[in-house]
TrEMBL record:
Family annotation (Gene3D superfamilies): Homeodomain-like, Tetracycline Repressor, domain 2
Pfam families named in the record: TetR_C_13, TetR_N
Organism (species): Cupriavidus campinensis
Keyword line: DNA-binding, Repressor, Transcription, Transcription regulation
Protein name: TetR/AcrR family transcriptional regulator
Matching SUPFAM superfamilies: Homeodomain-like (SSF46689), Tetracyclin repressor-like, C-terminal domain (SSF48498)
PANTHER family listed in its UniProt record: HTH-TYPE TRANSCRIPTIONAL REGULATOR YJDC (PTHR47506:SF1), TRANSCRIPTIONAL REGULATORY PROTEIN (PTHR47506)
């Protein structure tokens, strides 16, 4: 009896992630995924499930290594007001560091998710809401610390900052210009009297 084919699951998932980033969820075919991952279609289904299941696994892995890690790092290493500025500073740097300008997998998925897949849309919406919640936590904590005007409505500020982050990542795909991206963030932070983004690291 033939032994099942062995493969590196982490490497295969990374290949799928890159393929989804390159082409988007809807435009990526199963054939393209199997070619990128070095798997047959039955092996892909056995290991990862269908295309949506694979995408959700790839997205979860991406978020663990990027957005969730960045939020945790900002909250652990900075006071609340500076955490917001540091998060945006890193967003700009990440957007400019990708030579292919593929954008953020989560933001791309929010634009790509179709109305006939409500489960996928719900997952994406929940992740975006976690980002909004980070902004709201930071705003409330900064107000409690006296570093942000208590007159601001935390929910409104968080919604606005989420819109800036989404807009930044979308715009960076077609206009990856440092001056433009920094201006977007600088204006949003300035209107709230928040600290400026930290300078780029060398």
């Amino acid at each position: 009896m033939a032994r099942p084919r062995q493969f590196d699951a982490a490497a295969a998932l990374a290949a799928a992630q890159n393929t989804f980033l390159d082409k988007g969820y809807q435009a990526t075919s199963t054939r393209e995924l199997t070619q990128a991952m070095g798997l047959t279609q039955p092996s892909l289904y056995n290991a990862f499930g269908d295309k949506r299941s694979l995408f959700l696994l790839a997205l979860d892995d991406y978020l663990n290594k990027s957005l969730r890690a960045r939020i945790a790092r900002a909250e652990a290493n900075h006071p609340p007001a500076q955490a917001i500025a540091a998060f945006f500073g890193e967003s700009v740097e990440r957007a400019l560091a990708d030579p292919q300008h593929r954008g953020c997998m989560l933001i791309n998925a929010s634009l790509d998710a179709s109305s006939d897949d409500p489960a996928l849309r719900e997952v994406v919406a929940e992740e975006l809401d976690d980002l909004r919640a980070f902004f709201e936590r930071s705003v409330r904590a900064a107000q409690a610390a006296g570093t942000l005007d208590a007159g601001f409505v935390p929910e409104d500020v968080a919604a606005n900052l989420l819109a800036v982050q989404v807009g930044l990542r979308v715009l960076s795909r077609v206009m990856p210009e440092r001056a433009l991206l920094e201006a977007m963030v600088r204006q949003a932070l300035s209107m709230l009297n928040l600290p400026s983004m930290p300078p780029p690291s060398c």
